[in-house]
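Q: My labmate handed me this sequence with no annotations at all. I'd like to see what the chain might look like in three dimensions before we decide whether it's worth expressing. Could you predict it?
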Amino acid sequence: MMCAHRWLAAGAVAIAMANPAQAAWPERPITLIIPAAPGGTTDTSARLIADKLSAKLGQQVIVENRAGAAGIIGAQALARARPDGYTLLMGNIGPNAINYALYKTLPYKPADFSPVTLVISVPNVLVVNAASPSRSVAELLAQIRQDPSKVSFGSSGAGQSPHLSAEMFKQRAGIPGTHVAYKGAGPAVAALLGQQFTFMIDNLPSSMPYIQSGKLRALAVTSAQRLAELPDVPTMAEAGVKDMVVTAWFGLVAPAGTPPDVIDTLYAATRDVVRSPEISERFRAMGGQAGGNTPAEFAAFIDQERGRWKSIVDAAGLAQEQ
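A: Here is what I predict for the chain of 322 residues:
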C-alpha cells in the first residue's frame, strides 16, 4: 500500500511538471506591457492597478513601457509572448480597435489576443494652451478659419483615439488641420504646453492636471453629458458640434491560448481592484469610469469597437500601409 501511495504521488508530480498550466499560477512576477510612453492614460491607469494586482495575486506585476508605432510595438510583443499568463498588455482603443482599420497590414491580428477585462473608460477633451485667444469652441473655429494655413493639432500617436477624435472633429466642423503625432500623451501635452500646435483632443486624464492648474483650457468634452469634475465645460453637442461622442477605453489583454483558469483568475482579481472604493474613486477623479466586465463581454465590446472605428477611418480616408 505504501508503494502504491508513493507511485501515485510521484505520478502527480510528473503530471504537474509536464503540464505547467495545471500548476499554481502565478509562481513568478508578471510583466504588464504598456504600448505607450509614460504620462498618458494607458500608463497612468496601468500603474494605478499594478501594485493592487500584485497584492491580490501574490506576485509582483512589473510595468514595462514599449511605446511607438501607434501601439503596434507593444501589441506585437504581447502577440509573440508565451500564453502562460506571465505577459499581459494594457490594451486600448488604438492598437486593439482603430489600428485594424488604419493599417492595411499589421504584425498581429484579433485572434492573437485573449481579452481579460475593461479597466477604465474615459471621455476625451478638446484643449488649447491657456495663452490661446480661444475661450470656446466657436472662437477656436473662428480662429482656425481666419488663417487655416497655420492650423495644426497634436496627438499621442497616429491611430490613437485622440488622433481619430480630432479627425472626427475636423469632419464635423468642416475645418482643416495638420496632424502632429507624438510618442504618447505625455510628450503631446508637453508640446501643447509649449504652444507648438493649435489644439488637441486628448484623453481627459492626461490633460486634467493641467486643466485644473490653469495651464490648459478645456473647451469641450466628448461625453454625452457634462462631467462632475469639469461642470463648466460643455459637451461637444452643447458647443455646436453634433454627433461627437467618443469614449476611450483601456483594458487587460493576454496572448491567445492563455489557459482559461488563468484568464478567470486575472479577471476576478482585476475586477475587484478596479471596483474597489480606492481605485474607482481615483478613476473618477481622473474623469474616468471603472470597468470590470467579463472576458466574454470585453471581447464582444472590442469587436464592436473595431467595426465602429473602421467606418470613421474610411470616411476620413486615413487607411495607410504599415
